[in-house]
Amino acid sequence: MTRKEQIRNFSIIAHIDHGKSTLADRILELTGLVSERERREQYLDRMELERERGITIKAQTVRIPYKTSSGEYILNLIDTPGHVDFSYEVSRSLAACEGALLVVDATQGVEAQTLANVFLALDHDLVVVPVLNKIDLPSADPIRVLEEIEDIIGLDCENALMVSAKTGENVDKVLERIVTDLPAPQGDENAPLRALIFDSWYDSYQGVVVLFRVLDGSLSLGEKFMVHSTKDVFEVTKLGVFSPDAKDIKRLGPGEVGFLCASMKDLDDAPVGDTLTKPDRPTDKPFPGFKKIKPMVFCGLYPSEPAEYEPLKAALERLNLNDAAFTFDPETSMALGFGFRCGFLGLLHMEIIQERLEREFQANLIATAPSVVYQVELLDGSTVFVDNPHKLPDTQETAAVLEPFVRMEIHVPNEYVGAVLALCEEKRGIQKNIAYHGVSRVIITYELPFSEVMYDFFNKLKSQTRGYASLDYEVIDYRPADLVKLDILINGDPVDAFSIICHRDNAYRMGRSLALRLKRAIPRQMFEVIIQAAHGRKIIAKERVPPFRKNVIAKCYGGDITRKRKLLEKQKEGKRRMKRMGNVEIPQEAFMAVLKTSEED
Predict the structure, then answer these.
(1) Under CATH, which number does the domain 484-600 receive?
(2) Per-residue pLDDT at 45 exceeds 80
(3) Which residues is 375 bridged to in the sheet?
(4) Residue-level pLDDT at 87
(5) What is the dihedral of CA 135, 138, 140, 142, to 10 degrees?
(6) Which of 127, 159, 227, 583 has a CA that sits 20 to 30 A from residue 511's CA?
(7) How is the chain split into domains, by residue range?
(8) What is the distance of C-alpha 521 from the center of its chain?
(9) Is residue 108 within 8 Å of 114, Cβ to Cβ?
(10) Taking CA 67 as the corner, what is the angle to CA 63 and CA 69, rounded to the nearest 5 degrees?
(11) Which residues pair with 531 in a beta bridge?
């Protein structure tokens, strides 16, 4: 077991694409943990999906042995995601650290998630060391960026490190600063065991795997431990560390980070944020746990075949353990049968979960259009929360409908301020502040309805600012709005999966746009398909998908016109009968069409 004075627990935090994973790669190579033969980009990103997209989704830990002239040290590195949808992963990882490396791109400077993540680190009382990355690029401007860090964040940058994670320049100095500037963990080895669970996942062979940090006491292989909240007792069957691959170990003491297996079969046996302790000598200071994450975006996930319902349920349960911010509840749709209403933190989070279900569990899914949670005040004085547009109460029962608002900070170069302001106003935004930092950096603060942000705001922002803008948002409150439910009828029958909630002023435009998109997505049938958008009992848009038609009069070479008319009438009667009996075939593309922007029409 390592003495706690020789341990350093730290995280790397940064905005997306500022070089966190690349810096982690260089640190692994410099310390000799990864050989030249094993070397690969994004070494700590284990998921195929992370490599493809070039982003970190799950926080990863690695134990790095490091020798200096002053002695031997153990560095526990936790590589964290940078995207706003995965900020809960960052906060969980920071709870297990004493310090953090703040990586800032020397060409782009301070971005929205740089600010959000550094404030998370300061909330956890971490020591933050500023690191300027990408100084090898011709467009790097370290002096300007250092001024931005001091001006916007308020960190002292006198001894900031200048590195290039790509070339490895000055990465050795980063390691030295981790040892000298970051504090060693506190903790009493003789106190009762107190260990924080900051991640867990399911393994098909070993059951639930728990990633934890020992705060006080120690834990050995074969010992019994208790999960504080549930009072369940288990025996450690496997104890280890990631260095960078799993490596067995006999004992872990204060300040150390590792994983354990204990034949946990139930997915609720190891809640993230809980405390591990000894059953015969429990701690009286359990970790307070993590703030409960509330999903803000909901969508329905349905199996394409009814027989796949149970396998889909099992897959969702396993993902839920690995991803605490993802929730699901059973629901039934008239159009799609039995499925689940799933909650996510944002659209990227939703996209990642769907891809993981399809890749890791071979699930064939039908996904409905996403929606946010609305607060509905009823005339009888009660309040309900609606995450499914189809369940919105009738107008005659409601006193008010409130929608969630977000406070959004947009970091953008000076020349694109006009385009950003126009976009925010178009999305019903309320301007709160415009702050100029340095010569060309502007931080614009707006309050916007979350439903307007969710669909296409990010794509429009990137296109109108040539990719230079970055944003961070947080949900602040619910506010009343003139909202209505828009129903889609296919051949007179409402399809609940297509229902959406929108502002009354946008209802006609949305109805026209949605009907047109569905017309393009629904294939022609043997009978006519009528698509209608309805607001209450009023039809506001209509489109028609014409039927296939066989040329029944091809064999008539002449003769009386009544003969041709008779055949056409016979065909028309057959189509009417088929229409009464037939169900319209709606492909998955039609459900995804709801997501597309109206500009594409």
Answers:
(1) 3.30.70.2570
(2) no
(3) 385, 402
(4) 59
(5) 70
(6) 583
(7) 4-181, 194-277, 297-368, 375-480, 484-600
(8) 28
(9) no
(10) 155
(11) 490, 543
